[in-house]
Amino acid sequence: MPELAAVLFDLDGTLVDTAPDLGAAANRMRTDRGLSALPLEILRPVASQGAQGLLRVAFHLQPEDPDFAPMRAEFLEIYAAHICEQSTLFPGMAETLTSLSAHGVVWGIVTNKPGFLTLPLLSALKLPVPPGAVVSGDSTARAKPDPLPITHALAKLGISAAQSLMIGDDPRDMAAGKAAGTRCWAAAWGYLEAGNDPRHWGADQIIQRSEQLEFALLHFNTAQ
């Protein structure tokens, strides 16, 4: 089996803990309407779903509801203005990125987050090693779970799918990676709603804690 040459990360809930800022945007909308703020632990499990998930939990809104589109626009405006006030890399991620670079493994980001949010967030985070490719939700004609964003990222990196690994905290990450031909690891430290069990995602491996990722990657080629 080919050795690992590239690692692709989902962004929210995998590489970066963005839930505090996403939750704050939803709560700002609630308090502006005279509602009490929700505890972060209620909003965190849907943070990977972006505006759709947060508006569902915070306001019981569905995309087909007439108020959804204007409230989504309001949410995105608030979030964009406070894009990285509390967001941080998950524990161990800075060390993981540095280790990958030291071992000659390139890395990239494949996210469904739109580019106008992705790029300012990455700039504010001051990553220890810059990604070789960043593919946002609007970078390609189709987003995950379609494999197109992953194949696009790998083309930018110049690495084959057989030499690559996709890591994410959502079933769509596994579906996209498998369809693109990469190996796939589930990030169990991410944003998981009750009943969303990574054991059912078809992942090649499940990593429970972000602090364990560097060690797992260092032993990737012997473990596969």
TrEMBL record:
InterPro entries: HAD-like_hydrolase_sf, HAD-like_sf, HAD-SF_hydro_IA, HAD_2, HAD_sf, PGP-like_dom2
Highest taxon, organism lineage: Bacteria
GO cellular component: cytosol
GO MF annotation terms: metal ion binding; phosphoglycolate phosphatase activity
UniProt-listed GO biological process terms: DNA repair
Keyword line: Carbohydrate metabolism, Hydrolase, Magnesium, Metal-binding
Annotated Gene3D superfamilies: HAD superfamily/HAD-like, Putative phosphatase, domain 2
NCBIfam families: HAD-SF-IA-v1 (TIGR01549), HAD-SF-IA-v3 (TIGR01509)
Descriptive protein name: Phosphoglycolate phosphatase, bacterial
